[in-house]
């Protein structure tokens, strides 16, 4: 009997191009891939709905960005990767090498009272506790959401 060592069929690698207007940001928020990643790079955490990345329809939240315009992001600090993305404003076409991962599920957790601590585990996905996320409280109804340190798209 031979073991199947192939990758999950839902994970794909590829090159893609995102077209945008000169002076327009890419419209993405990235986070570090986290401890224990086989390939330390950045992960697409969210996209601005009206931004070029979302409009292209080629990227999904959870995708790993391996390189931008042939510049590898592997092993680079998050701040350096953010600077590289911010530096794309004057370009009209951006080349991305990505590893596309399975879709991400968003879960909204409502607590009866803010005094109760949250405790959870994520398997086969991104553990938000290992990224540089901060929690923003919605004072009106006790809902909690996660955002990256800067919270604004690049």
Low-confidence stretches: 1-9, 126-150
Q: List how many beta strands DSSP finds.
A: 8
Quote the distance from N terminus to C terminus: 49 Å
Determine the fraction of residues in helical runs and give it as a percent range: under 10%
* Class by alpha and beta content: mainly beta
CATH architecture of the domain at 12-100: Roll
What is the CATH domain class of the domain at 12-100?
Answer: Mainly Beta
**Order of helices and strands, N to C?**
EEEHEEHEEE
pLDDT averaged residue by residue = 74
Q: What's the CATH H-level superfamily name of the domain at 12-100?
A: PDZ domain
Biased composition (Basic and acidic residues): 129-138
Region (Disordered): 129-154
Organism: Gambusia affinis
Protein name: PDZ domain-containing protein
What does it look like?
- By secondary structure, this protein is mostly beta strands.
- It has a domain at 12-100: Roll (Pdz3 Domain), CATH 2.30.42.10.
- Helix content is 9%, strand content 29%.
- The protein has helices at 52-56, 78-86; strands at 12-19, 28-32, 42-47, 64-68, 71-72, 93-100, 133-137, 144-148.
- The strands form 2 sheets. Strands 1, 2, 3, 4, 5 and 6 form a 6-stranded antiparallel β-sheet that branches.
- The longest helix is centred in the middle third of the chain and has 9 residues, at 78-86.
- It is globular, with a radius of gyration of 17 Å.
- The protein starts with 11 loop residues before the first strand and ends in a 6-residue tail after the last strand.
- 24% of the residues are buried.
- Residues 15-100 form the PDZ domain.
- One of its GO terms (cellular component) is cytoplasm.
- Keywords: Repeat.
- Residues 129-154 are annotated as: Disordered.
- Pfam families: PDZ.
């Amino acid at each position: 009997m031979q073991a199947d060592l192939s990758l999950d069929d839902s994970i794909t690698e590829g090159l893609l191009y995102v077209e945008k207007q000169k002076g327009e940001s890419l419209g993405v928020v990235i986070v570090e891939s986290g401890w224990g990643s086989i390939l330390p790079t950045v992960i697409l955490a969210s996209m601005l709905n009206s931004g070029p990345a979302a409009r292209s329809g080629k990227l999904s939240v959870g995708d790993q960005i391996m390189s931008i315009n042939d510049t590898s992001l592997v092993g680079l600090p998050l701040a350096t990767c953010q600077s590289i993305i911010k530096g794309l404003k004057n370009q009209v076409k951006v080349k991305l090498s990505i590893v596309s991962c399975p879709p991400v599920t968003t879960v909204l957790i409502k607590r009866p009272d803010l005094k109760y601590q949250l405790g959870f585990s994520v398997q086969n996905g991104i553990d938000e506790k290992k990224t540089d996320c901060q929690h923003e409280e919605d004072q009106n109804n006790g809902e909690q959401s996660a955002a990256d340190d800067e919270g604004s798209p690049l």
